[in-house]
Amino acid sequence: MRGKFAAEAGEKVAVEGNERNGRLARVAVLASFCAFILLAMISVHEAGYPDAAQMDDYFIENGQVETGSNNIVAAVTFDYRGFDTLGEASVLFAAATGVFIAMGGLKK
Amino acid sequence: MSFEDQGLSFIVKNIACVLAVPVTIFGLYIILHGHLTPGGGFPGGAVMATVAALFAVAFGKGIFGRAMRRDFLLMLESIGLGAFALLAFLGLGSTFFRNWLLGTGLFFGNAVPFGANPGFLGTAGVIPLMNIAVGLEVFAALSMVVVLIFSSEAKK
User: Fold this and answer.
1) Using CA atoms in the order B84, A100, B51, B57, what is the torsion angle rounded to 10 degrees?
2) ipTM of the complex
3) B106 alpha-carbon distance from chain centroid
């Protein structure tokens, strides 16, 4: 009787210890994540001052002349990197057609 | 109207009809001015497709039987993607996706002055045409998804 009771008490202590360890592990994970985010925020670039600015300068200086578009983003997406946009439009087409077929659009 | 017993109340239906006009015009504005202001075919088409969701919520599921046929939307979507790819292939005289219309002085073919300018609609060559094609495709695709989801719910 007594031995069984002591064993149960020991189990209870062990479970409590596991819970404490789990809480410690969670706090450690959270703290390391916060430290990582803080370090990343501190070491992030200042906006508008990239390390390699050659491509930005090229687009700003030649984009209007080469594409005739005031919007440099449109110039990049539809002229300089038009192939990427073609793939993007194809993905959207495939997705919508897949929904069309999956919803039984082909049969009357 | 035969939709009177479906959907939300009389007020919501009327407001949805009133809102559909400015929302569509705003989407067309975003598509047509894609080479001048932020925006373009993708966001403009998404704004125009909002009208389909608005009507689905306001009028219930029965409205899509006649107003927006799914085969028609699939055809519009195919036309949009085909026109986009065709405009890209038409530049194959020099390279794929060459801006062949720029500088010819034709439709949308005027050059733009360097630096800050007020923005002229008839510039940028094929970019506005591609924006229109992509806008048509995105509008048709998203509207078709909304129509299909709502009309499949109606069957159950």
Assistant:
1) -170
2) 0.79
3) 24
Question: How far is Cα of residue B24 from the mean position of the Cα atoms in its chain?
Answer: 9
Q: What is the model's pTM?
A: 0.73
Dump pLDDT digits (tens) for B64-96: 665 557 778 888 889 989 988 888 888 777 777
Residue A92 amino acid letter: L
B:37-76 residues touching chain A, CB 8 A cutoff: 37-38, 40, 42, 70-71, 74
- Delimit the domains of chain B by residue range: 3-155
Pairwise CB contact (< 8 Å): A73 & B38 = yes
